[in-house]
């Protein structure tokens, strides 16, 4: 049987079309447990085979290991470079944050070498709330524009947790300077605050990528890792929702994925993956929602359980791996 291809969605004004599910490569840096090179390569190949064309990494993930592993996986595809879209980041490294023009300019050369590429499609300033937003506006982004002119990157992005950082920067740079934003943990069943920002971003012609539809593990049967910064109320609310789904023979992670995928104004939902099995599960969730729509009944029941903790966020101080 032919595999239904993933939907491709336009990314702002870039002209790029991203698969609705994106491959988050941070797990390839062994940040959630060891991943062998053969597993890393196999998961990238399977993702591409099933229609994922967007791969996102950062020099920070696994202290540059994620970029190296993703580079090996992409090389193993043996397809023309224009068939996949690669995004990496700058400004956040194992040794700390540095958004200076000098460091980000050097950073892209290091990333290209690890990724074994001549250019990346998107270079994003990584977790900008930890730096000076004014430096990002006045120094980092102009440096990235030079990299764009040099052909090392095609588009410029910014990432971070608090939503107000996006409006702060976008209100202060010339229109069309920043092409894309990557927001995480603000478009999932427990927190949909990104929705309020979508009309503003659309008006600016900025593409939107949303990461962590499972809210960094809150919306899983296993529950979040020990370091998760959510409040005890939010954790127990999500735990109750997961248990409720399990009782009904449903999987909360799959429902959460489908919830995040159903908003077409979000170009791609990034999910961390490190095995063929994870790739297959995520793509299956997406193709199922495309064919049958989301499970509205169970979703509304989960939303009722989560209502008391809806849109509760946490401070950005978390040192995410």
Automatic annotation (TrEMBL):
Gene3D superfamilies tied to this protein: NADP-dependent oxidoreductase domain
Residue span(s) of domain NADP-dependent oxidoreductase: 21-302
UniProt xrefs under InterPro entries: AKR (IPR020471), LGALDH-like (IPR044479), NAD(P)_OxRdtase_dom_sf (IPR036812), NADP_OxRdtase_dom (IPR023210)
Domain of life: Eukaryota
GO MF annotations, alphabetized: L-galactose dehydrogenase activity
PANTHER family: GH17980P-RELATED (PTHR42686)
Protein's UniProt name: L-galactose dehydrogenase
Species of provenance: Theobroma cacao
Name of the gene this protein is made from: LOC18607308
């Amino acid at each position: 049987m032919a595999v239904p291809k993933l939907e491709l969605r336009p990314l702002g004004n870039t002209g790029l079309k991203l698969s609705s599910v994106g491959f988050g490569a941070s797990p390839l840096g062994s940040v959630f447990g060891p991943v062998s090179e053969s597993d890393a390569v196999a998961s990238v190949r399977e993702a591409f085979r099933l229609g994922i064309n967007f791969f996102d990494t950062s020099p920070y993930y696994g202290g540059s290991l994620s970029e190296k592993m993703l580079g090996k996986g992409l090389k193993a595809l043996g397809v023309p470079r224009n068939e996949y879209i690669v995004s990496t980041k700058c400004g956040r490294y194992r040794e700390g944050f540095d958004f200076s023009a000098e460091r980000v300019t050097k950073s892209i050369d290091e990333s290209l070498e690890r990724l074994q590429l001549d250019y990346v499609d998107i270079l994003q300033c990584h977790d900008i709330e930890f730096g000076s937003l004014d430096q990002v506006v006045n120094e980092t982004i102009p440096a990235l524009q030079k990299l764009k002119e040099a052909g090392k990157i095609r588009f410029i992005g910014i990432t971070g947790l608090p939503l107000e950082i996006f409006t702060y920067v976008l209100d202060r740079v010339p229109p069309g300077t920043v092409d894309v934003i990557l927001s995480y943990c603000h478009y999932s069943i427990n927190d949909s605050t990104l929705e309020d920002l979508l009309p503003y971003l659309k008006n600016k012609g900025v593409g939107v990528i949303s990461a962590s539809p499972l809210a960094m593990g809150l919306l899983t049967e296993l529950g979040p890792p020990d370091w998760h910064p959510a409040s005890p109320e939010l954790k127990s609310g999500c735990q109750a929702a997961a248990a409720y789904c399990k009782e009904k023979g449903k999987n909360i992670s799959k429902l959460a994925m489908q919830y995040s995928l159903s908003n077409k104004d979000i170009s791609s939902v990034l999910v961390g993956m490190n095995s063929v099995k994870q790739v297959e599960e995520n793509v299956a969730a997406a193709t199922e929602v495309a064919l049958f729509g989301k499970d509205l009944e169970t979703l509304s029941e989960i939303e009722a359980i989560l209502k008391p903790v809806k849109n509760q966020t946490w401070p950005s101080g978390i040192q995410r791996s």
